[in-house]
Write a structure and sequence with these properties.
The structure holds 2 protein chains of 2 kinds. Chain A is mostly helical. Chain A is built from 12 helices and 2 strands, in the order αββααααααααααα. A two-stranded antiparallel sheet of chain A has the order 1-2. Chain B is an all-alpha fold. Chain B has a single domain, classed as MetI-like fold (Orthogonal Bundle), CATH 1.10.3720.10. Chain B is built from 14 helices and no strands. Classes of the chains: A mainly alpha, B mainly alpha.
């Protein structure tokens, strides 16, 4: 390990020859991390790809039968898949108001809250974000319980027909959307608040001196300057929102009633561990990876192209 | 600072009362949102201190004599799961650092053309939905006899958190002034010495907040736990979600158990709020 002497900050043009060990050591530091990802992420990923071409029921004794592209053509014919894809879109679009719009409003409203109040406020929005999704699911199941839940009591008090939020086909998916969004408000609010705090104060003061109203300042200065952050959170929500709702679907509705709340993530889980159709499950996973991969790529390109940066 | 600026602006139209009213009402609105937002958690914590009868009472009881029986019962019932949760959370966090910290260090101190790409590649693995690879993982776990073992779950959470460690530690280590490093190099420090004597001590605050996030994520995780453990290695999150079968029978007891799950996180979260926020917002904001 005594090769460091040779690495004294030289300009690249006058690079002296380094021993192989000195060149390789930094890579050795990287290797364990690369191997971990290769073994625990890429190996299963390749296996999913492989399984997507086979018909198999997960039993070690039953043979895997190669079926080519059949799994892929079959899953697109299944009505559950159509429903799940449609629901995935509803989840993505439904979560955006709660994961992007509301946090943005809250972050702007609380910009002026200072000192102790600010800390308390942050703590309030901070807690749900840090909570286990399983606990979140359980709290909401209790609040929305059709017999003794608080929601039921409220409906009774204001003399309205109580809604069985998790069992009613019309309401169930929106309930899950709401719960997923509720968990996300804190995170987005914190990110937006941080972005707003980063805006150069001199711009705001200059605008104030020129007699701009608070609304004008927000509209013309703050919002454009934090637009990269807004775009980032929007993209994150589009890419991951539907995935985040999985935990709540799994605990609260298992995709029901009558597939009303299932999304593509939950459906491929059901295919895999529910009906042991490993081929279908894997094929759906591959379609999913490809779809969201393309979406991520496009999003990244758009982010680089349209976001307004300071300076 | 801002109030000072506001007071000193001479062209301010004589709309002070209106503006005051506006600010106060907007502030009130923000607080109302926050309270409505926090209510479900408050309600659960309240219920954890009620008897089952009180928890089920309609209309809901707001004032009551708090009891601790539910917590005593929860501890007795979930002691084993609590231990598993602690083992897995701390074990995976330590392992994530053992693997991730040298990688982050190497990418900052010895960057190559591919370093930026490698860093993004590490982060990109966090975008992968676990549900898409759970079947092969289950098979691998079965082959290696890792199913329902604390060790197996620890490995899984390490894989989950390591990219986060690399990403965050990369940013923290990058903030170390390059002069310090160059001085060390001139003094003939070896790679090992640079790592342990310079990078590690200077990045300690970053290590603390990153570790906190890793602990919380591992503590909260339920998907891998539900599918890869059964009884022996099942952490708290699995026990909590197992309640779905006996729906709403013991709400006070369940509230106590759920409060136990979120209590450490809340305690940590409140005491280290600033570091956590710094950690979470890192990379998202410039």
């Amino acid at each position: 390990m005594n090769h460091a002497v040779l690495r004294v900050n030289q300009p690249p043009s006058t690079k002296r020859r380094k021993s192989f060990a000195a060149l390789a050591t930094p890579y050795l530091y990287l290797l364990p991390a690369l191997l971990t990802i290769a073994i625990w992420v890429y190996k299963p990923l390749l296996q999913t790809l492989e399984l997507s071409f086979f018909d198999w029921n997960l039993l070690p004794t039953s043979p895997k039968v190669f079926v080519g592209w059949q799994n892929f053509s079959r899953i697109f014919e299944l009505p559950e898949v159509h429903q799940a894809l449609w629901n995935t879109l509803i989840y993505i679009l439904g979560i955006i108001p709660m994961a992007v719009v509301l946090p943005l409003v809250v972050a702007i409203l609380t910009e002026h809250i200072q000192g102790r109040a600010r800390n308390i406020y942050r703590a309030l929005v901070f807690v749900p974000m840090m909570m286990a999704p399983v606990v979140v699911a359980i709290i909401w199941r209790w609040l929305l319980n059709p017999v003794q839940g608080i929601a039921f009591e409220v409906f009774k008090t204001i003399q309205l027909e109580p809604i069985n939020f998790l069992r009613d086909e019309r309401w169930a998916i929106w309930t899950i959307v709401f719960i997923t969004g509720w968990k996300l408000i804190g995170f987005s609010t914190l990110i937006f608040s941080a972005a707003i705090a980063n805006v150069d104060r001199s711009y705001l003061e200059a605008a104030r001196l020129d007699g701009a109203t608070e609304w004008q300042i927000t509209r013309r200065i703050t919002l454009p300057l934090i637009s990269p952050t807004v775009f980032f959170i929007t993209m994150l929500t589009v890419l991951l929102g539907s995935q985040w709702s999985f935990a709540y679907i799994n605990v609260l509705t298992q995709g029901g009633p009558r597939n009303a709340t299932t999304n593509i993530y939950h459906l491929l889980y059901e295919f895999g561990f529910g009906s042991f159709a490993i081929g279908w499950s894997s094929a759906a996973a591959i379609v999913l990876f490809t779809g969201f991969g393309v979406l991520a790529f496009v999003g990244l390109k758009l982010m680089n192209k349209y976001a307004i940066y300071e300076t | 600072m801002m109030t000072a600026a506001r007071r000193s602006s001479p062209q301010k139209p004589p709309s002070h009362p209106w503006r005051m009213f506006q600010n106060v009402s907007l502030g009130l609105l923000a607080w109302l949102i926050a309270l409505a937002f926090f209510f479900p958690i408050l309600w659960m914590i309240f219920s954890a201190f009620k008897t089952e009868d009180q928890a089920f009472a309609t209309p809901p009881i707001i004032f009551f004599q708090p009891i601790f029986d539910n917590f005593v019962k929860a501890f007795a019932k979930y002691g084993h799961a609590l231990l598993n949760s602690l083992l897995v959370a701390f074990g995976s966090t330590i392992l994530s650092f053992v693997l991730g910290l040298p990688a982050a260090f190497s990418m900052v101190f010895y960057p190559t053309k591919r370093s930026r790409g490698t860093l993004l590649w590490f982060v990109s693995t966090k975008m992968m939905p676990p549900v898409g690879v759970i079947v092969p993982l289950y098979l691998i776990f079965k082959d290696l006899h890792l199913l329902d073992t604390v060790w197996g779950l620890t490995l899984m959470y390490t894989t989950m958190n390591m990219p986060l460690v690399i990403w965050m530690m990369h940013s923290y280590i990058s903030e170390i002034p390059s002069e310090i490093l160059e001085a060390a190099k001139v003094d003939g420090a070896s790679l090992m010495q640079e790592f342990f004597n310079i990078a590690m001590p200077l990045a300690t605050p970053g290590i603390a907040s990153t570790a906190l996030l890793c602990l919380i994520f591992a503590w909260n995780e339920a998907f891998f736990a539900l599918n890869l453990t059964n009884v022996d290695a099942a952490p708290l999150s699995v026990y909590i979600s197992a309640f779905k079968t006996s729906e709403g029978l013991f709400w006070a007891g369940l509230s106590a158990a759920a409060t136990l799950v979120i209590l450490p996180v809340m305690a940590f979260g409140w005491s280290a709020q600033r570091q956590l926020i710094q950690g979470l917002t890192m990379g998202a904001v410039k």
